[in-house]
Specification:
mainly alpha; Herpes Virus-1; three-stranded antiparallel sheet; two-stranded antiparallel ribbon; 9 strands; elongated; zinc-finger; coiled coil; metal-binding; RNF41 ligase
């Protein structure tokens, strides 16, 4: 839908009106036949039709193009009243800047920022409303530090709230201790497995060294036996030499 033509100051050229809603073009698109439409209007029209609503020429969404620059400039220069005119805003500005103004307009109806409050209030009166809103939050005047809503004043109990907070903290502490415990046990198990593996490797190396030592001692004994035999043979040969 376009901008309500009654909001505009002065004459509005017929070419700047939507051919469907007959209001001033909003986010305009133009067909090859040069008829212009609001984007929302023409898209809605083409859901059920395949032609221009003015001259019935065949058109498709892919054929729609932005408005000619000179027409876009004429459109942006149009002067209109703020939509909050009925609430007291007297601002008149160009169509090009109306959205920016209305986003910041002091007469705009905005929702209260307090959770649970459904009141719509003018932006300029928001601070006054927040000061008395029954859903406003504040810190407990008794010093417990708990944030309460005005509507809950009669139900607030400092001792009960602090006890609840303490229980929550205790539960969190228990959870953290359990997590730390599990993490330490996991690390110890990992280190234990590593030590067992290292012990197994060392044990195998010790057994291998024992085996090597045993073979070496056997070789030494064999050499000593050979040496004794050679010595005996030499003694026997020496004896035989003397006898000869």
């Amino acid at each position: 839908m376009g901008y309500d033509i009654d909001r505009f100051v002065g004459y509005v050229n017929e070419g700047l009106l939507c051919s469907i809603c007959r209001d001033v073009l909003e986010d305009p698109l133009q067909a090859p036949c040069e008829h212009a439409f609001c984007t929302a209007c023409i898209h809605g029209w083409l859901v059920h039709h395949s032609n221009c609503p003015e001259d019935r020429q065949v058109i498709d969404v892919s054929l729609l193009r932005p408005l000619y620059r000179y027409m876009k400039n004429d459109l942006n220069r149009l002067q209109l009243h703020c939509r909050n005119r009925e609430y007291g805003c007297e601002m008149v500005c160009s169509l090009e800047s109306i959205d920016r103004h209305e986003r910041e307009c002091e007469y705009s109806q905005i929702p209260c920022s307090n959770a649970g409050c459904t009141v719509q209030i003018e932006r300029r009166n928001l601070d006054c409303h927040l000061a008395v809103c029954e859903f406003r939050s504040r810190e407990c005047p008794n010093g417990c530090g708990y944030t309460i809503l005005s509507a809950e004043d009669t139900q607030h109990n400092c001792v009960a709230e602090l006890r609840t907070e303490l229980e929550l903290l205790r539960s969190e502490m228990i959870c953290k201790v359990e997590e730390a415990k599990h993490e330490m046990e996991s690390r110890l198990d990992s280190q234990r497995r590593h030590m067992v593996q290292k012990e197994s490797v060392l044990q195998n190396e010790i057994e291998e060294l024992k085996s090597q030592l045993s073979r070496l001692m056997s070789d030494v004994r064999s050499l000593m036996a050979v040496e004794r035999q050679h010595r005996q043979e030499l003694e026997q040969a020496e004896l035989e030499k003397r006898e000869l």
